[in-house]
Specification:
Blueprint lengths: L7 H15 L12 H11 L4 H14 L3 H5 L3 H7 L6 H18 L8 H5 L6 H11 L10 H9 L8 H11 L5 H14 L26 E2 L4 E2 L2
Antiparallel strand pairs: 1-2
Helix pairs in contact: 2-3, 2-8, 5-6, 9-11
Length: 228
């Protein structure tokens, strides 16, 4: 029987305990060797798999050396370099414009504040949080990607629908020491077990405390729709 625990705080704590045990070494899966590469990889990862991004950036990072190279790149050529990435034309423009701003306003260095990062073209709070956490070792919030969004709703931790609503709730519910790891734990479980369309509820280590478990629930709380 999948039943959430007494409060969202207790529920989240138990979920994290179990996921820590299941995925002890989980971390960011994007490949990068410096802050600019991280920023570009995260911009490219929007609505695209990390696996696909890593394949593209393996060549991209060899071709373009630093923000000036991206800032001065031909728009069409850069877009062509990204053509297997979703929305590659828009992302090429974001990267060129962001790098121009980095060169002109930040002495060629990726900024280290939320305000300066989110002022860059193509960079929202989620992207900025990733860059701060993994590029600058600064944890200001929780990265709420599609996996975190889906699982926190499915597990009855939140009823909020949008990342900007979910993030402050998670920051209230979880200790700051968990903010960074929380994202990777939920991503790992979301990829391996609690997938969007066909979660493996039978073998899920959270099934007994999941109010969306298909073993005894008719509704997916992530979407509010009946299970197919």
């Amino acid at each position: 029987m999948g039943t959430a625990l007494d409060s969202p705080e207790v529920q989240l704590a138990e979920v994290l305990d179990r996921l820590h045990e299941e995925y002890p070494d989980t971390t960011i899966s994007l490949r990068f060797s410096n802050r600019l590469e991280l920023l570009i990889a995260v911009i490219l990862s929007a609505q695209c798999t990390d696996e696909r991004v890593n394949k593209v950036t393996a060549d991209l990072f060899e071709k373009y050396d630093g923000p000036k190279a991206y800032a001065e790149a031909d728009q069409e050529e850069l877009a062509e370099d990204l053509n297997s990435i979703t929305y590659y034309n828009n992302k090429a423009e974001y990267i060129r414009n962001a790098c121009q701003k980095i060169v002109e306003e930040h002495d060629g260095e990726v900024p280290d504040t939320m305000a300066d990062l989110t002022d860059l073209p193509g960079v929202g709070r989620k992207t900025a949080n990733v860059v701060l956490q993994h590029g600058h070792d600064i944890v200001e919030g929780v990265v709420v990607d599609t996996h975190v969004q889906r699982l926190t709703r499915r597990l009855g931790i939140t009823e909020a629908e949008r990342p900007e609503q979910i993030e402050p709730e998670l920051m209230e519910l979880a200790p700051e020491s968990e903010w960074q790891k929380l994202t990777h734990l939920f991503i790992s479980h979301g990829r391996e077990v609690c997938t969007a369309r066909n979660p493996d509820c039978e073998d899920c280590l959270l099934a007994d405390i999941c109010p969306s478990s298909k073993t005894d629930s008719d509704v997916d709380l992530a979407s509010g729709e009946p299970w197919e």
